[in-house]
Automatic annotation (TrEMBL):
It holds the Pfam family DUF7848. It comes from Streptomyces acidicola. InterPro entries: DUF7848. This is DUF7848 domain-containing protein. Residues 1-69 form the DUF7848 domain. It comes from the Bacteria.
Length: 80
């Protein structure tokens, strides 16, 4: 007979504070892309300018951040 011991460890996922969020956007009609920036307002303004010049309202916007998972009560988890 085989026995198993189950151990539960709580984890938390957070956004890494040392890496800023990056905003990007691209037109869904043509090849235009906004310059990636850590300032979302700058990207929004570039999108509105593109739409104003071309009349193309559809844009794909992305926001990229980096996550870190830690065990609750422990600062960092080392790879094993
Ligand atoms: Zn376009």
């Amino acid at each position: 007979m085989t026995r198993s011991v189950l151990r539960y460890v709580k984890h938390r996922i957070t956004q890494r504070p040392d890496i800023e969020v990056t905003f990007q956007a691209e037109c869904q009609t043509c090849e235009w892309k906004a310059r990636p920036s850590t300032d979302g307002t700058t990207v929004d303004v570039e999108c509105m300018s593109h739409t104003g010049r071309t009349g193309r309202p559809g844009l794909r916007s992305t926001c990229t951040s980096f996550a870190m998972v830690t065990r609750v009560g422990i600062e960092a988890v080392s790879a094993r």
